[in-house]
Every structure is written in C-alpha cells, then in structure tokens.
Amino acid sequence: MSDSEAPDVQDPAAKRADSGELLLRIRGLRIEGRSGETWSGIVKGVDLELHKGEVLGLIGESGAGKSTMGLAAMGYARDGCRISGGSIEFDGLDLVTSTVRQRRRLRGSRIAYVAQSAAAAFNPAHKLIDQYSETPVQHGIAGRAEAEKDAIELYRRLRLPNPEEIGFRYPHQVSGGQLQRAMTAMAMACRPDLIIFDEPTTALDVTTQIEVLAAIRDIVEQFGTAAIYITHDLAVVAQMADRIMVMRYGELVEEAETRRMLSDPQEDYTKSLWAVRSFRSEERARPEGETPVLSVEGVTAAYGKTRVLHDVSFDIHRQRTVAVVGESGSGKSTTARVITGLLPPLEGRVLYKGEPLPPKFSDRSKEQLKTVQMIYQMADTALNPKQTVREVIGRPLQFYLGLGRRQREERVRELLSLIELEPDEFIDRLPSELSGGQKQRLCIARALAAEPSVVICDEVTSALDQLVAEGILRLLDRLQKEFGLAYMFITHDLATVKAIADEVVVMLQGEVVEQGPKTEMFTPPHHDYTELLLSSVPEMDPDWLDQLLAERAAGKAGGRMQSADQ
C-alpha cells in the first residue's frame, strides 16, 4: 500500500503526541563499547524525538542497540560503554553535559526504568514494598506511609494477588511474572514524565500480559506519561506504541506511525521481522507400547503448608516434546522442581524409564542426576558472571563424566561447535561478553555436557527477540533429533508451542486441566481456560487489545477472566 492509499486513522494517544510538548530530543547519538583496548560502535548516530504523552516502540533483534538507547535516554551508559557523541536533551537539559547530581535528581523521579530481568534487578535482601518506597521517600515526593498505601493501590491495578500483603514478601517469594509487575509498579511510584520499558512483559504469561499492558497504557494515558517501549514482540508493540523505530546494528533502519509501519513496511529488514516464526518441527507420532523416558504420576506438592500441585500426571517419550503451558503461578516450574528433586512431593512419584527416582536430589546417584538437566529462563542469572565459557561447560563434564583437562577441552570445543558458536572466538569469553542468544546457547551446551536423556526448557526463548528465538528453537529441534532427547518445554508463548511441541499439558492453579496431542489441543472445542489462553495471544492489529478488553467486559472471548497468579 502506498502512502496515498494509507488509511487516515490515528490513535488518540498519537493525536495528543502531535500537539504535546517535546520532552526528549536525541541527536546524533553515538555509544561505544570496549573490548580490551579497542572501542567499537554500539549506537551509531541515531536521532530520536519523544513528546509528552507519546509512546515510542523500539524494536530490532538482539544486539541492535535497543536497550542501550533506552538507558541513554536517562543519560546512562553501562559499564564498559561510553557516550562518545551527540546530545540527549530531556526537558531542555542536556544529559550528556549535565552533572552527576543533576542526572541523579531526574532518575527515579522524572525518568524511570523497567528492566527486562526483574530477578536480577531487585535486591534479594529487602522486601518488595521497601524497595518501592525508597525512591518516593528519597526524592521527597511522599512519606513512608503514603508510599506504602500507593504501592498497594498500584499492585492492585497491576493485578498482583493479595495486594495488601504481597509487598511484604522478598523477591524470591514471588513468581517471575509477579516480580516483573512489582517492578513496573516501582517505576511508576513517582509518576515520572518518562518511563523506559525494557521488555516489561517478557516473563509474563499471555493472560497476565493482557492485564499488565492494559494497566501500563491506562497509567501512561491518565498521567500523560511518555514512554519508550523496547520489545521484540511485534504484536505487543502494535498495542502500545504510537510510533515505531526499527534498529539494526546500532543504526535506525525505519521509523513510522504504528499503523503505517504494520501495513506498509518499506525496508527489507523490517519486512523480515514481520515474517519470522515460520518454523514448525516435524509431526512425530506417539510411540505405542514404549515406556516413557519420564513419567509424572499423581504428584501433589506444597511450599510449607500451602499445596501448589494437585495430582499432576503426564508422560514424556524419547525424541518428543511436551509443552507445559499456563499462567504465572499455575505450577509449571514447580512441577519441574519436583522432577529434578528440588521439591520432594507430598504424594505421587517421578519415574525414569519406569523406575522411581528418589524424591530428593540429594538421595539420587550421579547417574540419576545427569539424566535430567534444566535450561533456565534467564541466562543472565543462571550463569556465573566470573566463569569463562570454558569453565561453564567444563564443570559438568568434570562432575558427571570425570573427564580430565585435555578431554574436557576437546569436549567443550565440540559442544560449542554443536551449538553453532566458534570455539576459538568464544571459549575464553565471560557471560557479559555474550549476547542474549549466545548466553542461552551456552546454557544449552552446559545442559548437554551431562549427556542427559531429558531436558527441561523453562521459558528458554521468552527473553529473546523473535529472530534469535527461532534460531534457538531450530537448534533445540536439531539436537533432539541428533541425540534422541525428550523435552519438557515450559512456556507461556503459544507460538512456541505450535512451533516445537508434540503434546500439550495445560495447567491452572496447580492442576492439569487439559492435555493431549498438539493437533487436538489447537482444535475446538477447548476447555474454558485453554480457550482463554488462545484468545489472549496478541495479534498484529493496533485495535486488538481494545477489542479484546471490550469483549471480555461483555462476557465474551474465552469466558470469564481468570485471576492471575492465584
């Protein structure tokens, strides 16, 4: 569609942005990163403008410079990086030439940041509400009691369970999705003029994501807050942004109003982003009469006195993938903890090739431990930042297989080649010197080093952009065929389920509500909750969220809304 044919439609927020005051102006921004004694460009002369009340979507693959740009909007560069050129004017103040004191006065109060990994961003030693209250109290915006009251109200608006109580928990006592929403509330504590959202719904299931997106948009509109929304999810950015900027290799590829960008992208690279997620693994028939590699039989488990799993059962066969889906807090990761022996069940058992595994991992033999390995959601927190790639992969080779130094070195190089990373280039790097996709490949290699039969993939692609995620799915599929691996794939992304699963297990509030072959699970009729999940997958339509919320308010689109994380 040509420009003359583009529909003359504009969102209300975009109209406000047209008449709103200029809040942020970035000109010719250059940011460099250091590797040894060499500096190289990360952001290469990018311009950006943002008006009050406007939401700018920033998209691109891993390493494009999106998060670096977002941090630069606060006048900040990560360790090992420097702002080497250009200007960053926030409400008339150039953050490049301003003093440290001036920038600190703005951060938290007028400019806030929501990080991608809440687990890594929170202080594990302090309760959520203490960390929420710190910024408004320090900036003199509110007293402690007022800040706590406001925290509870925002927790409620972001659909956190037990909003009056959840703030008094520590970060490790809530789910990943709950923690991400608590961080979003914390960023809103001072009602800033600008919020940088860096993948704020990455860790959320689709049902919770809808509520968080609606809450973020409501608060942005209500308080006239401008936002930079960084994401790799094109359907999400379509619901949130008035304009979209596409970046690649630190440069601006294309920029346009959201509807025009979605309907008529001009650049080949932008068109390629629109076309990803074409991968589908081959359909594999379920083996008849074959003993499952792993069986979960009637498992009931609890944290303290609270039962969180109720009579959970399913099987995983060799060279097949069982996707376990459900909202945050439904029991997906808890089931994985039972399987690995980290949480002994109250009832039921876990069998490996028909033989029961000891409930506690400490009672399992080394051979039993190596058979089930995990790949975690957040590679940043799963890797020791002080260990090189050689050490990360080498430790399980030594522990499980007893390999000597020379054998370890050879096997580490073989595994790096297997995950498509050049050994000579990557073997001596630290995790901080790897991209998000490279870190996740490293976690895959670490799991494979133990030579397992079962690999539990816990949201392994949720933090990755769509191009990188597709590469990881293709890699996992190839490795499964090569080594006959059985996968338990924990995910809230139904596009991933369609791409890689053979069977699907749907969980809600610690119970299995539906399970079966993928082809059956995506064919109506569905269980009410499965229908809710399917209806909650965002579409590449800027009106989709509004229409869905209106339908649900009228009692349509998947039945009644389930309360998240209960």
Total beta strand runs: 20
CATH class of the largest domain: Alpha Beta
CATH superfamily of the largest domain, please?
P-loop containing nucleotide triphosphate hydrolases
**What is the terminal separation in angstroms?**
46 Å
What is this entry, summarized?
With 566 residues, the protein is of the alpha/beta class. It folds into three domains: 3-110 and 192-273, 3-Layer(aba) Sandwich (Rossmann fold), CATH 3.40.50.300; 121-191, no CATH class; 294-387 and 450-535, P-loop containing nucleotide triphosphate hydrolases (Rossmann fold).
Explain what you see.
This protein is α/β, with parallel strands linked by helices and 566 residues long. It has 3 domains: 3-110 and 192-273, Rossmann fold (3-Layer(aba) Sandwich), CATH 3.40.50; 121-191, no CATH class; 294-387 and 450-535, 3-Layer(aba) Sandwich (Rossmann fold), CATH 3.40.50.300. The chain is 38% helix and 23% strand. Strands 6-7-8-3-9-10 form a 6-stranded mixed sheet, with helices on both faces. Strands 16-17-18-13-19-20 form a 6-stranded mixed sheet, sandwiched between helices. The two termini are 46 Å apart. The model is unreliable at 1-17 and 557-566 (pLDDT under 50).
How are the elements arranged and paired?
Blueprint: H1 12-19, E1 22-35, E2 38-51, E3 55-59, H2 66-72, E4 81-90, E5 93-94, H3 100-106, E6 111-114, H4 118-121, H5 128-138, H6 144-157, H7 163-166, H8 176-187, E7 194-198, H9 206-223, E8 226-230, H10 234-240, E9 243-248, E10 251-257, H11 258-263, H12 268-274, E11 294-303, E12 306-316, E13 321-325, H13 332-340, E14 347-352, E15 355-356, H14 366-371, E16 372-375, H15 379-382, H16 389-401, H17 405-418, H18 423-426, H19 436-449, E17 454-458, H20 466-483, E18 486-490, H21 494-500, E19 503-508, E20 511-517, H22 518-521, H23 528-535, H24 544-553
Helix pairs in contact: 5-6, 5-8, 16-17, 16-19, 17-19, 19-20
